[in-house]
């Protein structure tokens, strides 16, 4: 029986050569061909002369009034003049350098001319000559060397004629009703052979949904398969056993923290490995959430590891977790690349014997010779700072263990659905109480004096300020001078009442630590710095963040920098100094000053810069879609994800009659491409 999932080679006129050329365009089946939609349309429908504007690209229908004339000037240059009767008016049409067109027209013949209209002269610069039968909206495809527009057109026409009756909707009926989707056959017809602009729009909407839905179905089925094939220990927790720990905390968990702890504990009790991403802005309190997951694991007789991207962060975590766990029996050890060989030799057997409950460290934790007794949970902090490969390695190593990844970088919805689609996501969307949202202002560099006055006033109230200067290349002398100049400028302006510190990447570790300690202890009130302060700095008395040349930073980075203030109870401020040169730059500054929502900001960043710019095309992990735009159409993407989850959450979905078309469609897709 004929099916749209037949190889494209079954079509008349598609031999091995064409088949290979089509494969280059990712077209393997008839279905692929029929969903190879045009990327734009050209309107060749003729218009009335009275409707035209000057310089508009238009199509006119008329009769050839006189024999066309070709004038030559120079060796290669020529023009063809043609008088066209359009109703009772004469329009002079000029074609440059296409003398052969003369042979294609005869006096008295009705033709279509597509070109640019000049209202004053009532003339047309011809671009294309068409037959009256071509008076339609034409689809334009992205094609390659072997396949021309015309071939593509003809192929799709043939395929549609032969296969239109086999086109069955694969999206289950309840979903089609819910989102008022067009039938697949209509979608394909309207996308290729449009009848009206409205019909195309409706078709495109459904086409996008269909594409996203298939993508999500594949993702969800893979996720379910991964869960079936990998078992993890069930970590049963009784909330009561965690209560003493909670009672000992100097604060109450926020509602958001409570919610995500609940989500994590539920995951841990299931026999399938947890793969959860915990997102929460800097300062939202992710550490204590991780601590609760670790405690639950240890109380269930399993071990846990906490992985940090740098030695410094690992040490910080080891210290703060030791404090948090002071009232418990959790045994903690630190293992990094810096751990001396002797200490390491003593530690490894204890880890293997299960005498250590929690190992905190860097990727040294995952080296071959580190063996665990019962590894029940791996927590990965600042997971976005690990490379794609490292992440893959960790995923493989931890395939059968529970993984909790944490990140302070808000992941835009587009990415969390596509690139991170295999993870479940928990969000801490609330900062611990008492903190006020940071007020952000954008000023021009001509207003620096106002900024200085403002900073001085707050310093006099006992507060502290960060001043950040962009430095792309720390070895660049010109850029370094920029930081130094800012540093001396602040020293001069503030006089002897206040002390200014300087921090940049070329300083050695000891000097950096000294500068940081001075600022923490309020021996310096202003810290002028390059972006090295981005990670792991926590000075709650600092209430002002000044960022020079703010338009040189990405929005996500600005958001991170701004997160350095707003950690105490006083009102905090962020002052962006920038003279953006274009609209996008202005928009970006406005996004920053109008929002403190990291998710909103990162989605805007994606929209304004495009995914390729932010992460590199390969790095982004966003798959290529045919019609759907995962950034602009993120709402459609998200709706498709939601229903795909609903379908696959039913363990029997593949057996149900209403899903059979979908099963077939997915089966064909999975046979075609590996999906990794
Ligand atoms: P991050 O999410 O950036 O890792 P941390 O876990 O380091 O944040 O927490 C930042 C600070 O907030 C820490 O000093 C921590 O003790 C404190 N904190 C965490 N949760 C709460 C809470 N519910 N109420 C008050 N302070 C909290
Ligand atoms: Mg943290």
TrEMBL record:
<dbReference type="GO" id="GO:0016787">
    <property type="term" value="F:hydrolase activity"/>
</dbReference>
<dbReference type="InterPro" id="IPR001650">
    <property type="entry name" value="Helicase_C-like"/>
</dbReference>
<dbReference type="Pfam" id="PF17191">
    <property type="entry name" value="RecG_wedge"/>
</dbReference>
<comment type="similarity">
    <text>Belongs to the helicase family. RecG subfamily.</text>
</comment>
<dbReference type="InterPro" id="IPR027417">
    <property type="entry name" value="P-loop_NTPase"/>
</dbReference>
<feature type="domain" description="Helicase C-terminal">
    <location>
        <begin position="450"/>
        <end position="607"/>
    </location>
</feature>
<dbReference type="Pfam" id="PF19833">
    <property type="entry name" value="RecG_dom3_C"/>
</dbReference>
<comment type="function">
    <text>Plays a critical role in recombination and DNA repair. Helps process Holliday junction intermediates to mature products by catalyzing branch migration. Has replication fork regression activity, unwinds stalled or blocked replication forks to make a HJ that can be resolved. Has a DNA unwinding activity characteristic of a DNA helicase with 3'-5' polarity.</text>
</comment>
<keyword id="KW-0238">DNA-binding</keyword>
<dbReference type="InterPro" id="IPR011545">
    <property type="entry name" value="DEAD/DEAH_box_helicase_dom"/>
</dbReference>
<dbReference type="InterPro" id="IPR045562">
    <property type="entry name" value="RecG_dom3_C"/>
</dbReference>
<keyword id="KW-0234">DNA repair</keyword>
<keyword id="KW-0547">Nucleotide-binding</keyword>
<dbReference type="GO" id="GO:0003678">
    <property type="term" value="F:DNA helicase activity"/>
</dbReference>
<dbReference type="Pfam" id="PF00271">
    <property type="entry name" value="Helicase_C"/>
</dbReference>
<dbReference type="InterPro" id="IPR014001">
    <property type="entry name" value="Helicase_ATP-bd"/>
</dbReference>
<keyword id="KW-0413">Isomerase</keyword>
<keyword id="KW-0347">Helicase</keyword>
<dbReference type="Pfam" id="PF00270">
    <property type="entry name" value="DEAD"/>
</dbReference>
<dbReference type="InterPro" id="IPR004609">
    <property type="entry name" value="ATP-dep_DNA_helicase_RecG"/>
</dbReference>
<keyword id="KW-0067">ATP-binding</keyword>
<keyword id="KW-0378">Hydrolase</keyword>
<dbReference type="InterPro" id="IPR012340">
    <property type="entry name" value="NA-bd_OB-fold"/>
</dbReference>
<feature type="domain" description="Helicase ATP-binding">
    <location>
        <begin position="267"/>
        <end position="428"/>
    </location>
</feature>
<keyword id="KW-0233">DNA recombination</keyword>
<protein>
    <recommendedName>
        <fullName>ATP-dependent DNA helicase RecG</fullName>
        <ecNumber>5.6.2.4</ecNumber>
    </recommendedName>
</protein>
<dbReference type="InterPro" id="IPR033454">
    <property type="entry name" value="RecG_wedge"/>
</dbReference>
<keyword id="KW-0227">DNA damage</keyword>
<dbReference type="InterPro" id="IPR047112">
    <property type="entry name" value="RecG/Mfd"/>
</dbReference>
């Amino acid at each position: 029986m004929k099916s749209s999932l037949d190889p494209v080679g079954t079509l008349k006129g598609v031999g091995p050569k064409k088949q290979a050329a089509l494969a280059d365009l990712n077209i393997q089946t008839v279905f692929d061909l029929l969903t190879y939609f045009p990327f734009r349309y050209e309107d060749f429908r003729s218009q009335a002369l009275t409707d035209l504007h000057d310089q508009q690209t238009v199509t006119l229908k008329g009769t050839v009034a006189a024999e066309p004339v070709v004038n030559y000037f120079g060796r290669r240059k020529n023009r063809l003049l043609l008088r066209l009767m359009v109703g009772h008016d004469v329009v002079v049409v000029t074609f440059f350098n296409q003398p052969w067109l003369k042979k294609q027209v005869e006096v008295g013949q009705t033709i279509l001319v597509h070109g640019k209209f000049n209202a004053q002269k009532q003339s047309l610069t011809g671009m294309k000559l068409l037959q009256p039968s071509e008076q339609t909206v034409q689809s334009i495809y992205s094609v390659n060397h072997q396949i021309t527009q015309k071939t593509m057109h003809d192929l799709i026409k043939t395929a549609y004629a032969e296969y239109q009756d086999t086109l069955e909707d694969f999206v289950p009926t309840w979903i089609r009703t819910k989102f008022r989707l067009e039938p697949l056959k209509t979608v394909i017809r309207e996308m290729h052979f449009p009848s009206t602009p409205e019909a195309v729009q409706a078709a495109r909407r459904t086409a996008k949904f269909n594409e996203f839905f298939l993508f999500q179905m594949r993702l969800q089925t893979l996720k379910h398969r991964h869960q079936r094939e990998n078992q993890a220990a069930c970590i049963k927790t009784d909330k009561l056993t965690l209560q003493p720990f909670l009672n000992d905390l100097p604060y109450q968990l926020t509602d958001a923290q409570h919610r995500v702890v609940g989500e994590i504990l539920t995951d841990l009790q299931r026999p399938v490995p947890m793969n959860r991403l915990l997102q929460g802005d800097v300062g939202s309190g992710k550490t204590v959430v991780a601590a609760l997951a670790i405690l639950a694991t240890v109380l269930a007789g399993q071990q846990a590891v906490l992985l940090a991207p740098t030695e410094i962060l690992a040490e910080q975590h080891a210290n703060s977790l030791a404090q948090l766990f002071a009232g418990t029996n959790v045994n903690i050890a630190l293992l990094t690349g810096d751990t001396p060989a002797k200490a390491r030799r003593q530690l490894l057997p204890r880890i293997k014997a299960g005498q250590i409950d929690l190992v905190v460290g860097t990727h040294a934790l995952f080296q071959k010779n580190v063996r665990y007794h019962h590894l029940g949970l791996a927590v990965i902090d600042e997971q976005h700072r690990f490379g794609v490969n490292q992440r893959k390695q960790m995923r493989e190593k931890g395939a059968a263990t529970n993984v909790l990844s944490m990140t302070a970088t808000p992941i835009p919805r587009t990415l969390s659905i596509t690139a991170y689609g295999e993870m479940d996501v928990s969000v801490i969307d609330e900062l611990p109480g008492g903190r006020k949202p940071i007020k952000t202002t954008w000023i021009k560099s001509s207003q620096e004096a106002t900024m200085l006055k403002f900073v001085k006033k707050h310093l006099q109230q006992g507060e502290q300020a960060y001043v950040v200067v962009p430095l792309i290349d720390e070895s660049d002398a010109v850029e370094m001078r920029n930081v130094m100049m800012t540093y001396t400028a602040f020293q001069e302006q503030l006089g002897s009442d206040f002390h200014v510190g300087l921090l940049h990447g070329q300083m050695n570790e000891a000097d950096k630590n000294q500068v940081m300690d001075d600022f923490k202890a309020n021996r310096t009130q202003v810290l002028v710095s390059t972006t090295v302060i981005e990670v792991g700095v926590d000075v709650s008395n600092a209430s002002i963040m000044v960022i020079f040349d703010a338009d040189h930073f990405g929005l996500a980075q600005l958001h991170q920098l701004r997160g350095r203030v707003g950690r105490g109870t006083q009102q905090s401020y962020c002052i962006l100094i920038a003279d953006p040169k274009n609209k996008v730059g202005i928009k970006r500054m406005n996004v920053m000053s109008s929002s403190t929502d990291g998710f909103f900001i990162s989605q805007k960043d994606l929209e304004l810069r495009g995914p390729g710019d932010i992460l590199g095309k390969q790095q982004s992990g966003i798959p290529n879609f045919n019609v759907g735009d995962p950034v602009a159409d993120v709402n459609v993407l998200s709706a498709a994800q939601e229903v795909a989850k609903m379908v696959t959450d039913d363990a029997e979905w593949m057996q149900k009659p209403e899903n059979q078309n979908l099963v077939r469609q997915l089966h064909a897709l999975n046979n075609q491409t590996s999906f990794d």
